Amino acid sequence: MAADMTEPRKHEKYDALIYSCHALAPVRVAVAHPCDETSLRGAVEAAHARLIKPTLVGPETRIRALAQSLELDVSAFSLVDTPHSHASAAKAVEIVRRGEADALMKGSLHTDELLAEVVNKDTGIRTERRISHVFIMDVPTYPKALFITDAAVNIFPTLEEKADIVRNAIDLAHALHIEQPKVAILSAVETVSSKIPSTIDAAALCKMADRGQITGALLDGPLALDNAINREAATIKHINSAVAGDADILLVPDLEAGNMLAKELTFLADADEAGIVLGARVPIILTSRADDVRARMASCAVAALYAHAHRVAAAKIGKLADLT
Q1: pLDDT tens digits for the chain (324 residues)?
Q2: 225 with 261: CB under 8 angstroms?
Q3: Which is deepest, 5, 174, 182, 189, by most CB within 10 Å?
Q4: Position 166 in a domain
Q5: Within this chain, do residues 210 and 311 fall inside the same structural domain, yes or no?
Q6: Is 202 found in the same domain as 165?
Q7: Same domain, 157 and 258
Q8: Is residue 116 part of a domain?
């Protein structure tokens, strides 16, 4: 029997992301402590796909022994020897600070351990922008990639922090060639109520966009999840909005809500999830041990596209500065 042509094709959004990197040079990535199969294999396979040019940072003897046991060839990669995971995180961040890497990749160490080095006031790579995480979800039943933020870094963000979280996600959308992303600011309801603080934040963020404090996207909220991603649900509730039913970015109220939403889509809706941290000097590829190879490749592709877009923007600013 012929396949149903109306059935959504799994992975097609991630395939498009990875394919879009083929014309770009691999980005230099410092991989912090790739000392388990998942992290080392992910870096090696992304390198073979010409997405990244990795520098492996960790205990050299341990990494080479692991590579040999997995029949992975790491002879072409730079390898910086460190004694343990904390030193790996510090050295990987140092490599970025010296301008020798365009992105950072988490290996087999805890996220907090890596991010502590990233935000270190003296030796880190933080900027004035709040650091935040974005899931780029490939949901088979949704027509385009769906960004969920923040589901991994900021636990209970303030209004000001949410503004930075939105800005980071908008920058990422632009790097992925979404010219005017639609941002749905989620809550449990679509009306503003003092009893639900996230609705107040949503209204304030929309007004900030109206006043030019947040630019480059269309914002609307508060919106319940159904109204954000389903046009019929929005129509039934008489929500007249360019964002409702067609969101690119979902800004969640807090980490708990975002993390549960992302995992529900992954394990109940058969979605893929790629992850990246933004707001530092370079993108940070933050993958989970549960991620499959395609999700890890997609995370590398997203970081590569973002790094290239950042480099182009910096070059334009440099040229303008020379003209003045």
Answers
A1: 444 444 455 667 888 888 888 888 999 999 999 999 989 998 999 999 999 999 999 999 999 999 999 999 999 999 999 999 999 999 999 999 999 999 999 999 999 999 999 999 999 999 999 999 999 999 999 999 999 999 999 999 999 999 999 999 999 999 999 999 999 999 999 999 999 999 999 999 999 999 999 999 999 999 999 999 999 999 999 999 999 999 999 999 999 999 999 999 999 998 988 999 999 999 999 877 666 777 788 899 999 999 999 877 666 656 555 555
A2: yes
A3: 182
A4: yes
A5: no
A6: yes
A7: yes
A8: yes
Question: Going edge to edge, which strands form the sheet with 272-278?
Answer: 78-81, 52-58, 27-32, 103-106, 284-285, 272-278, 132-138, 146-149, 249-251, 182-186, 218-223
Whether residue 300 sits in one domain with residue 258:
no
Q: Is position 57 within any domain?
A: yes
8 Å CB contact between 251 and 166? yes
- For residue 189, being part of any structural domain is answered with yes
CA distance 204 to 196: 13
- Asked whether the CA dihedral 232, 237, 239, 243 is positive or negative, the reply is negative
- What CATH number has the domain bearing residue 259? 3.40.718.10
Q: Read off the DSSP letter of residue 55.
A: E
The reported pTM is 0.90
Express the helix, strand and coil content of the chain in percent, nearest 5 each: 45, 20, 40
Q: Which domain holds residue 59?
A: 24-126+280-324
- CA-nearest of 85, 105, 123 to 301 is 105
Place of tokens 């190879």: 293
The domain total for the chain is 2
Are 32 and 104 in contact by the 8 Å Cβ rule? The answer is yes
- Inter-residue contact 287 to 106 (CB < 8 Å): yes
